[in-house]
Design goal:
22% strand, flat
Length: 403
């Protein structure tokens, strides 16, 4: 944890970005392509990357499908991309220089390497069981700071982005555009590691030219505080000393893919725990669930959340690692940050006794061969109740086994 301040507290910060941020546009296009294929071919192998910039979307990657409907879905990739961009809100405003109807969509997709495929397909490689789609390490994390068992800074940062979308779509603040970023700094008690108050909020939101003068920016600040920040930050955490920055550089007209080129997989800390938990380095979006970068990270979150929900620890970080083509993880490591109620060695044993951590076991338990991924591609992959990896259905069994 960070070092103490003079008053016995420390500060921790996390950021989020909106669904209209260029990197998130790319993530959503990649996951929408994945969903379109899984909807008609649950066995599809997909690694889809997207680049978006001024007037252009490029979709590239490796895809293997197994039926005519999936081939048809591949042929519809252009419209899939346009639908996502349209739903995000890049429509009808030529000043944004990125528009769902007029942008060019370039597709360059080929088949998955057979060398990788033999390691992932059951019985096809050197090992009998379905193996991991790649080597690497993945992390899951949970803590008691929020009802969702997510760290408070990233939870609030995501909720601010949810609220920015709501304010834009409902017209609560006229003239907002899709690109936005948030950042939340929380002050913690260094003795207990518990949140005490929100120290600083930063919210930058793209807007049209009506908000570009200095006087208008002051009015926009008031509107953002009223319609975005105050509905999200709990009153008990928002005192008179809170620091709020709204569009701190001034006007924010130029944004989205015209302001910055977007790429799939470039917001991995936003996607996970805001830096509060570790990250193995692998991105999620555009990857089918045979790829453990994604599926094992979801499983690690599921396991860590159940450990905390079971009362075995107040915080839990779980590391899993895999070898390509091998089913069983090469390591399982638990760190409860000094909050464990039973020995961590016993928690590790319980994890390996109660959870199937093989790729096939993960796919089955979390029901991952479904078109569920675009909804994960903005405002965080974790903490959303509809995701199977957010279930705490094993907590009671873990609590009983730990007695």
């Amino acid at each position: 944890m960070p070092s103490k301040r003079d008053n016995g507290t420390f500060l921790f910060t996390s950021e989020s970005v909106s669904m209209g941020h260029p990197d998130k546009v790319s993530d959503q296009v990649s996951d929408a392509v994945l969903d379109s294929l899984l909807a008609v071919d649950p066995q599809a192998r997909v690694a889809c990357e997207t680049l978006c910039t001024t007037g252009l979307v490029v979709i590239a990657g490796e895809v293997t499908v197994h039926n005519a409907k999936a081939v048809q879905a591949l042929d519809s990739v252009e419209e899939t991309a346009r639908k996502v961009i349209r739903e995000i809100g890049y429509t009808g405003d030529p000043e944004m220089k990125f528009d769902a109807e007029s942008c060019a969509v370039v597709r360059t997709i080929h088949g998955q390497s057979p060398d990788i495929s033999q390691g992932v397909s059951s019985g096809a490689g050197l090992h009998k069981d379905q193996g991991a789609g790649d080597q690497g390490m993945m992390f899951g994390f949970a803590c008691r700071e929020t009802p969702q068992l997510m760290p408070l800074p990233i939870h609030l940062a995501h909720r601010l982005m949810d609220q920015q979308v709501k304010a834009r779509r409902k017209g609560l603040i006229k003239g907002l555009r899709p690109d936005a970023k948030s950042q939340v700094t929380v002050e913690y008690d260094a003795r207990t590691n518990r949140p005490q108050r929100v120290h600083t909020v930063v919210l930058s939101t793209q807007h049209d030219s009506t908000w570009s003068t200095a006087a208008a920016q002051k009015r926009l600040r008031d509107q953002v505080i009223r319609h975005v920040i105050k509905p999200v930050i709990p009153k008990r955490l928002m005192d008179k000393n809170i620091i709020i920055h709204v569009n701190p550089t001034g006007k924010f007209e130029v944004g989205g893919p015209h302001g910055d080129t977007g790429l799939t997989g470039r917001k991995i800390i936003v996607d996970t725990y805001g830096g509060r938990g570790a990250h193995g380095g692998g991105a999620f979006s555009g990857k089918d669930p045979t790829k453990v970068d994604r599926s094992a990270a979801y499983m690690a979150r599921y396991v860590a959340k159940n450990i905390v929900a079971a009362g075995l620890a107040d915080a839990c970080e779980l590391q899993l690692s895999y070898a390509i083509g091998v089913a069983e993880p090469t390591s399982v490591y638990v760190d409860c940050e000094g909050t464990a109620k039973i020995p961590e060695e016993r928690i590790s044993e319980l994890i390996q006794e109660k959870f199937d951590l093989t790729p096939a076991g993960i796919l089955k338990k979390l029901n991952l061969r479904r078109p569920i991924y675009r909804q994960t591609a903005y405002h965080g992959h974790f903490g959303k109740s509809q995701s199977s990896w957010e279930s705490t259905d094993r907590a009671a069994a873990l609590a009983r086994a730990a007695r």
